[in-house]
């Protein structure tokens, strides 16, 4: 079955790196995504990775994919207070726009 | 380009009523998907439309329905509202030949 799991909370100090982890079960997943949700807002697409890639870097964001363990991580370098939000990972299977979302990780950045 | 817009942003309805939510995708996007977000169940896929046709459907009862118009705007309807339908309803659009979905701000529905 399809299931995406994330830890619920993460707290880091401003300026440190944050690492948010996600595990998924659907081996047919083609794309894996990271979204950010701030209070009262919709979801903002941060980055995504194609399943045939191991790593993708985009400014302060680094995505690592371990297909063997079905593990995805998002590293935020030099975390700022504005990064405080809920981060969702999501997967989609080939040929479909149906996303399966994780439970979300609430990131709290301490000044 | 303007983002995905959803109307209304907030809605209060009574049990048993029906409701229609509207979504306007980013210009040029033809795929529109709907999701329900609740504290208990998280984000769950409702359905996806492309060129006025429903292509994918999630595991929701038949009270939840949708449609898409020729200009790609989409509506979703919930009939015979239940307290458990209280949620944030999110719409997302996607450009052709891409799997990146862009979300609107959502419509917060409260059923009393």
**Whole-number mean pLDDT of chain B:** 95
How many helical stretches of chain A? 0
**Strand proportion of chain A:** over 45%
Strand content of chain B: over 45%
Q: What is the element string of chain B, with H for helices and E for strands?
A: EEEEEEEEEEE
Total beta strands of chain A: 11
* Radius of gyration of chain A, CA atoms, in whole angstroms: 13 Å
Keywords summarizing the entry:
heterodimer; A: six-stranded mixed beta sheet; five-stranded antiparallel beta sheet; B: 112 residues; mainly beta; globular
Give an account of the 3D structure.
The complex is a heterodimer of chains A (111) and B (112). Chain A contains no helices and eleven strands. Chain A is mostly beta strands and 111 residues long. In chain A, strands 2, 4, 5, 9, 10 and 11 form a six-stranded mixed sheet that branches. The mean pLDDT of chain B is 95. In chain B, a hairpin with a 2-residue loop joins strand 5 (42-50) and strand 6 (53-57). Chain A binds chain B through residues 30-31, 33, 35, 41-45, 48, 88, 90, 92, 96-104, and chain B through 4, 31, 33, 35, 42-45, 48, 55-56, 58, 90, 92, 94, 99-106.
Write the layout of secondary structure elements.
The complex is a heterodimer of chains A (111) and B (112).
Chain A: E1 4-6, E2 9-13, E3 18-24, E4 29-37, E5 43-50, E6 55-58, E7 61-66, E8 71-76, E9 85-93, E10 99-101, E11 105-110
Parallel strand pairs in A: 2-11
Antiparallel strand pairs in A: 1-3, 3-8, 4-5, 4-9, 6-7, 7-8, 9-10, 9-11
Chain B: E1 5-7, E2 10-13, E3 19-24, E4 31-38, E5 42-50, E6 53-57, E7 64-68, E8 74-78, E9 87-94, E10 102-103, E11 107-111
Parallel strand pairs in B: 2-11
Antiparallel strand pairs in B: 1-3, 3-8, 4-5, 4-9, 5-6, 7-8, 9-10, 9-11
